[in-house]
Every structure is written in C-alpha cells, then in structure tokens.
Input
Amino acid sequence: MNRLHTWYCQSDHWTWKTQSEVLPWALGGINLGDSVLEVGPGLGATTDWLRHRTKQLDALEIDPALADSLQQRFAATNVNVRCGDATKMPYQDGGFSAVLTFTMMHHIPTHELQDRFFREAFRSLKPGGIFAGVDSLLSVLMRLFHLGDTMTLVSPHTLASRLLSAGFTDPQIHVGSTRFRFSAKRF
Output
C-alpha cells in the first residue's frame, strides 16, 4: 500500500467507519458460525470487530510484517493469525463456517488469481458455510489510494457468475455508492 492508503487504513476515521457502517452493512443477517476465516485483515480494524462475533477467528495475511504485528496484537484472544497467500490457503478442506474478506480482493493482481481465491474460499468452507465480504468501486479516491499499488477491481456485475463457477450457490450482490457487498453459500 502507498503512504496515503496506509495512513488512512490506520486512521481512527477508517476504524470507526469500518466498524460502525461497513461491517454491519456487509454482515447484517449473516450467521457466521463458530469458526471464521478472515482473509486479508491488513491492519486489523475488521479483525478487532469480528473477534467478538465468533468463537474462533483465523486471519490470513500475506504481508509478513502485518501478520507479525497482528499476531502480537491478538496474542491473548480467540484470533489465530497466519502469514499466507489467499490463492493457496494453508487450511484443510471444509474447516470454516464462514470465509470473509473486506476491501482486499482488488489487491489480488489478476482476475485469474481472484478466481483462484474464490475456489480456495469454497474449498475452505464447511458444507452450509458462507463466503461474504465487501470491496470497493472505482472512484478518484480509490485511484489515489492505489497509486503505485495493485488495484484490480472486481466487477459486482460479473461477480455472481464468477462465484457460481467456483462452486458457490445463491450469490447475492448489493451495490452501494462506493462499495459493494456480497455473499454466497457452499452446499
């Protein structure tokens, strides 16, 4: 992430917005179950909110420095942090009741790798599990936050078919003004 993006993601404003607006909007009415995997927690604003809503929360972060920081921060909690790649997750098949991701998918550099991530999310879910999250829509601010950084946007208009191709059923996509939320099930 560039400096502007890092600064904003560390801000009190982002933490407040994420925890009071984005996460309740994204997960309203969704039963997370007892074993949740958060993919791409970044600086942990979402992790801190999620850990109070499930028995066990695993967090997979690709950046070694961020993963180490999160491990230290959540050491005495119900959060287990691992450093790893969303396109080849180090988890057993069917281990989670929910797989979640928040404003991370656009950091996956290609559509092919994003599709691999969707297949990995599917593989990691128990039957009856849910894959859900949020990602951003194109805007001037998104472009500024990603100068010199990866930004491969996921189109909410093609996401349902991509999730169906990964094996999910009942994909739900809801587009807001600056972001979209999604959910899909594994049966």
Q: What stands out?
A: The CA atoms of residues 23 and 46 lie 8 Å apart. The helical segments are 3-9, 12-27, 45-50, 64-73, 111-124, 140-145, 156-165. The mean pLDDT is 95.
